[in-house]
Design goal:
globular; Putative oxidoreductase; Sc_DH/Rdtase_CS; seven-stranded parallel sheet; oxidoreductase; 258 residues; 7 strands; single chain; binds NADP nicotinamide-adenine-dinucleotide phosphate; alpha/beta; NAD(P)-bd_dom_sf; Rossmann fold
Length: 258
């Protein structure tokens, strides 16, 4: 698809991949709207990227998605691309006590968020000549990361939903794209630095991942596997138990017991 003269909404545009998407897509000549929960971070991005439209919105809250839709549909009726990027990842020891309302947080943000965004914005996307939905999953959607069990569930769930969505939208004007991102040096991963079994040297720069995503979108790829995501894809098919055992080394000494 052409990546110029589009109106693009990116959830979670204040850091990591979302910020890289915003700056690169603006540079290509697109109108870009970003969201996030933290107003100060939104203001900081606005200073760095004066052309960006920054709207506070929490993707885990249905009411926020409804009001985001009302504002965007009113002010940007030509919106034709949504990038479901906002995400959170925690280390969770299942041996510890967790509030039932809190334990599912990644599901609410990373999985329910995109599902609700798609449902809310679909009628607007259907009105456009060319439209796309890009969902950011993860190599972890292919291979669980035991130290982050709820995150792992959220990303494999999002991959499954994305595949179903692509089939259901096959005869529409809307392309459905999955970015299977490998580990990257963003604040999402700060909590793992220094953790035994975690190889920070494997983290890919977020800008490079977003470059690969933009190239994939331009070339009409439906699934994009930057860097080691390609290897994870092959290895998780050939040797799934080995891959889970490898991933399970992160946090093993501190997280897997009382
Ligand atoms: N980094 C990696 O290794 C990696 C690998 C594969 C996939 N991914 C995925 O890539 C996406 C972006 O991750 P990242 O590494 O760029 O993370 P990041 O640097 O921590 O940025 C996350 C962004 O999401 C926003 N966000 C978080 N919760 C939100 C919510 N409830 N509503 C709206 N915005 C929210 C954050 O802003 P606020 O905090 O202000 O809301 C921030 O803008 C995520 O879906 C992540 O799972 C990351």
């Amino acid at each position: 698809m052409k990546l110029q003269h589009n109106t693009i909404l990116i959830t979670g545009g204040t850091g990591g991949f979302g910020f890289e998407f915003a700056s690169k897509l603006i540079a290509l000549g697109n109108r870009v709207i970003i969201t996030g929960r933290n107003t100060e971070k939104l203001q900081e991005v606005k200073q760095k990227l004066p052309k960006v439209v920054a709207i506070q919105s929490d993707v885990s809250k249905s009411a926020d998605i409804r009001s985001l839709y009302d504002q965007v549909a009113q002010e940007f009726p030509g919106l034709n691309i949504i990038i479901n990027n906002a995400g959170e990842m925690r280390k969770i020891s299942l041996h510890h006590k967790h509030e039932l309302t809190d334990i599912t947080r990644e599901i609410e943000i990373n999985l329910m968020g995109p599902i609700r965004m798609v449902q809310q914005f679909l009628p607007l996307l259907r009105k456009q000549e060319n439209a796309a939905i890009l969902n950011v999953t993860s190599g972890i959607a292919l291979m669980t990361f035991p130290v982050s069990p709820v995150y792992s569930a959220s990303k494999s769930g999002l991959r499954s939903y994305t595949q179903a969505l692509r089939v259901q939208l096959k005869h529409t004007n809307i392309k459905v794209i999955e970015l299977v991102a490998p580990g990257s040096a963003t604040s999402l991963n700060d909590k793992f630095l220094g953790e035994d079994g975690f190889n920070a040297g494997m983290l890919m720069a977020p800008g490079k991942i977003v470059d690969a995503a933009i190239k994939g979108m331009k070339n009409d790829k439906t699934e994009i596997y930057p860097g080691v995501a390609r290897i994870i894809r092959i290895m998780s098919r050939i040797a799934p138990k080995f891959m889970i055992a490898q991933a399970g080394k992160t946090g093993a000494s501190t997280m897997y017991s009382n």
